[in-house]
Amino acid sequence: MTNSAASSESLRFEGSARYVATSALKMAVNAALTLQRPLLVKGEPGTGKTLLAEEVAKALNRPLLQWHIKSTTKAQQGLYEYDAVSRLRDSQLGDARVHDIHNYIVQGVLWQAFASEEPCVVLIDEIDKADIEFPNDLLRELDRMEFHVYETRQTIQARHKPLIIITSNNEKDLPDAFLRRCFFHYIEFPDRATLSDIVAVHFPALQENILSAALDVFFRLREVPGLKKRPSTSEFLDWLRLLLAEATPPASLTQSDIPPLAGALLKNEQDLSLLKRLAAMTQRGR
Q1: Closest CA to 65 of 177, 201, 149, 163
Q2: How many Å separate Cα 10 from the centre of its chain?
């Protein structure tokens, strides 16, 4: 067993003061550490997938490197990019730097992680935003923990295997070959008790009557059939912050079919219209 493998197996993630992790999620992180495989985390938007990587890095006392994926992101950018445009410009200006191609190699997040003097946590955030070939283009590099730089004829090998946390909002299926190389965990939407624990982290002095009324409204809203987008954990926390800022009395939360400050919870006109129609039907039925 290598020193890197031994140190990975001795580390354990037990949650943090700022992040309420279920026992299943902690087990998933520790399994990825032991297996030295990427941890693929899925779940509804706003359930703390990105924050997980930040808190794991802090808990393990490791540097965090973040790669936020866009629809135009290419796998090569995570390794390195050759800035040919800058080199051409410098050659036209007679810059002496042009004679050393290393000056035009831009290190990507994975190169930085591989070259790090200490083990890192790497976040590959929202991998499902990229082209379907993106995950397959990283298979070899994630398997072997090395890649070749053709412009400089050098091979970059990981000094320490980083803990790679990959998030997905499940917008598109990921290739089977990629999935086989990951440890998978789905973050279930928190139940009432877990959400109360999460709230306690962010609002430790929140009165119980306000929390109880807000939870009633929130979970009732999530159960409305036909919602295009159900409100998430992060949106609930934003809503609570607004309720406190406006000193909204708990009784007013249940007096209307549409919650006060609903713009923190409902993010499109279709869902707002749906609630208004349901409220009108309720009024007619009384």
Answers
A1: 163
A2: 25
The Cα 72–Cα 100 span in angstroms is 29
Asked if residue 172 lies in contact with residue 41, where contact means CB atoms within 8 angstroms, the answer is no
Which residue type sits at 178?
A: F
Q: For the segment 139-185, what is each residue's pLDDT rounded down to a tens digit?
A: 999 999 999 999 999 999 999 999 999 999 988 889 999 999 999 99
From CA 235, how far away is CA 241, in angstroms rounded?
10
| Nearest of 4, 27, 81, 51 to residue 198 by alpha carbon | 51
Q: How far apart are CA 213 and CA 200, in angstroms?
A: 15
State pTM to two decimals.
0.87
Percent helix / strand / coil, the chain, rounded to 5: 50, 15, 35
Half-sphere exposure at residue 5, Cβ-oriented, CA atoms within 13 angstroms:
4
Q: Contact at 8 Å (CB) between 10 and 54?
A: no
Sign, CA dihedral 126-130-135-141, equals negative
Backbone angles phi, psi at 173, to 5 degrees: -70, 145
- CA distance linking residue 194 with residue 46, whole number of Å: 15
